[in-house]
Design goal:
Radius of gyration: 26 Å
Number of strands: 35
Number of helices: 16
Largest sheet: 12 strands, antiparallel
Mean pLDDT: 91
């Protein structure tokens, strides 16, 4: 993590002055782009920086770090940065001593423009007033706008004010820009709009900003705490004001990934540059994809949604996809289209191509190699509240709203008929039902009998009507002790021998389970790729609830600890703080448990199991679970977030052998 710096206004001003005298730009300020220059070197630029400090500033000084980072490059007279900073309960520097701060950084250094009354950074009015202030008070040939804070994706939005708990939804973003400018796809008022925030590189975000910017830069995935490198990309603009938005976007991406690599947090990093000139084609392709999907769903809802659910599971997903992490419900749009080519043969290929054309540059870490650069909302968990927020966003295609409505509530909305007839592309979804009509009656698979083959492997056999209910099948392992009257849930994995064609699903249990420094952990799979899997392990790290992020790579057959991160906040915002484990950290493992005697009417509840301190080289690796009784069940997951468990089989482990038996 970058060190926190708490500087007085005087010291900060002196630092700026010294930099202006003795520095011609940082090393990264000399970054170059593969894109040709688009403008003249004496053109003027205004960067508008909307800094909603939130707990990132009050808790960790992250906004202060980035503001200091900005001052580490000198600016020519034709490049200026206008800063509005608020939205936090406490600033970790003495320069920003007001609740709302308006500053300018230019060739004369950092200077406060005026004192402002407090305002809500999560309010469309505050955003609108800042946009108008920049337009009315600063002439510029080219404008850039950057949002800084937490992000939550298409349904949630960006910039959550820590004091008011309000945030900017996508409709708010468009309303604020529309209040100052007329949308003009041919001549947008901004050269680039960017999000130094998590999960905002979505179709819905880009569609909300169409007509207001040429390019958008954002991340599909959760951003690490390092965020963008402001001395890097602003320094590059200072060194070459002739560059266009495409070139600037590339430099933002490159310096961002360089910074992530320097801080060793690049594994899941993503950042992409989207050319909004391609939005009409992308919109048409996505709407056609949605109409074809809705048409197929109307014919055979169970089978279609199960296939689409498997496509969504196979594509990259972002921000969290487990009970403990929370569900951000963001899927890689290009990946979904690629996976759905067999399922939606008339439109998927065109959508994948449209995404590829719109994304003109992107960077990624080792565990986010397949991302296309544009995500979209997809309901992995069937959450009513999340879908309701998504359905309110004007930029979301009506066909997609209808499709997800059908997936979650089991019936077509009334407006779907016009969509199927090609008449409706935008608008509201109508009243959302208070009661679901579930087309995925997964309860019929609850306690499904399990068989044992001649080799002692447990397996279930599903007919076509059963597989048509499911998007995935996982295995669950439970430690059971009659003596202690406890069932301890160890987690779920995809490590089964699955044959969707024949409907036969068989266990691969070998008596081992992932352990952290020899301590059993509860683990859930979050992504399954050709060469690696990603997992999440709930823990307390030095007393703070979070999720340990772990990869398993097939090339070396080993787990790799990526770091720990809090789950999604109650408001849907993701945590940018990725914590690296260090020697001496206190770990408490968290499992889910119930008593055997009351298991028939009880639910698994979180329990703290082991507390220990880790050494210099903490490891997760598969180890023998030890002698004892272990229950094993197949978990059947539906496309709308429901699930059921098969009957348990018992693995009795003793003397290095495993005996499989059916529950009596």
């Amino acid at each position: 993590m970058k060190p926190f710096r708490r500087m007085t206004h005087l010291v900060l001003a002196l630092l700026c002055a010294m930099l202006l005298v003795g520095c011609a730009g940082s090393e990264k300020g000399a970054a170059t782009s593969r894109f040709p220059n688009a403008y003249d070197s004496d053109d003027t630029w205004l960067v508008m920086w909307y800094v909603c400090g939130s707990d990132l500033e009050s808790g960790y000084g992250a906004a202060t770090d980035d503001i200091i980072e900005l001052t580490q490059t000198s600016l020519p007279s034709n490049v200026r940065v206008l800063i509005l900073a608020g939205g936090t309960t406490e600033w970790q520097n003495d320069a920003f001593d007001d609740a709302l701060n308006l500053y300018l950084y230019d060739s004369d250094g950092l200077q406060q423009l005026t004192s402002l009354d407090d305002a809500d950074m999560g309010s469309v009015k505050t955003l609108r007033d800042f946009i108008r202030y920049g337009e009315e008070n600063f002439e510029a040939d080219h404008r850039v706008f950057v949002f800084w804070d937490h992000g939550g994706g298409s349904a949630v939005g960006v910039c959550a004010d820590e004091r008011t708990e309000n945030m900017l939804r996508l409709n708010d973003l468009r309303a604020a820009f529309e209040a100052v400018y007329a949308a003009s796809p041919a001549a947008p008022p901004f050269e680039l709009i960017g999000f130094d925030a998590c999960l905002m590189a979505s179709y819905e975000t880009a569609a909300s900003l169409e007509g207001f910017t040429r390019y958008m830069v954002a991340s599909e995935e959760v951003e690490p705490h390092t965020g963008w490198n402001y001395s890097g990309w602003v320094g590059a603009l200072a060194a070459n004001p002739a560059m266009g938005g495409a070139g600037l976007g590339q430099v933002i991406c490159d310096t961002y990934l360089d910074g992530c690599e320097e801080e060793d947090v690049a594994e899941q990093a993503t950042l992409s540059v989207i050319d909004l000139a391609h939005m009409p084609t992308l919109r048409s392709a996505y709407e056609a994809f949605g109409r074809e999907a809705l048409t197929e769903a109307s014919k055979k809802p169970r089978a279609f949604f199960s296939e689409l659910g498997r496509d969504a599971e196979a594509a990259e997903n972002y921000g969290g996809n487990t009970r403990d992490q929370g569900y951000a419900n963001m899927v890689d749009l290009g990946g979904l289209a690629e996976e759905a080519k067999d399922n939606l043969p008339n439109t998927a290929a065109a959508l994948a191509q449209a995404v590829d054309d719109a994304v003109i540059y992107k960077v990624h870490g080792n565990y986010r190699r397949r991302g296309s650069g544009i995500s979209a909302y997809y309901s992995y968990d069937g959450d009513d509240e999340g879908f309701a927020l998504y359905a309110e966003q004007d930029a979301a295609p009506l066909a997609q709203k209808c499709l997800l409505y059908y997936l979650i509530y089991g019936e077509m909305p009334e407006v779907a008929e016009s969509v199927l007839n090609g008449a409706g592309t935008t608008g509201g979804i109508g009243v959302i039902p208070s009661v679901r009509r579930d087309v995925f009656d997964v309860a019929q698979l609850e306690d499904l009998p399990v068989d044992i083959d001649k080799d002692g492997n447990a397996f279930v056999t599903l007919d076509e009507s059963a597989t048509d209910l499911l998007s995935a099948i996982h295995c669950n392992l439970i430690y059971m002790s009659v003596e202690d009257d406890i069932m301890l849930f160890l987690g779920s994995d995809s490590n089964i021998d699955a044959d969707w064609e024949t409907g036969v699903f068989k266990d691969n249990f070998d008596g081992t389970w992932p352990m952290l420094d020899g301590h059993p952990v509860y683990i859930e799979i979050t992504a399954e790729e050709d060469d690696y899997n990603l997992y999440s392990i709930p823990i307390k790290l030095n007393g703070e609830l979070c999720n340990l992020q772990v990869s398993y790579t097939y090339a070396d057959g080993a787990y790799h600890i990526l770091g720990a991160r809090r789950g999604l906040e109650a408001n849907g915002m993701s945590s940018r703080r990725l914590i690296r484990l260090k020697a001496g950290d206190e770990i408490t493992t968290i499992h889910y448990a119930m008593t055997i005697s009351d298991g028939h009417d009880d639910e698994f509840k979180p329990v703290e199991v082991d507390t220990f301190r880790i050494g210099r080289n903490p490891q997760v690796k598969d180890e023998e679970v030890g002698d004892g009784s272990y229950g094993y069940a197949f978990e059947f997951l539906t496309p709308n977030g429901e699930s059921a468990l098969s009957d348990l089989v018992m693995f009795e482990i003793a003397d290095d052998g495993i005996v499989t038996s059916l529950m009596e």
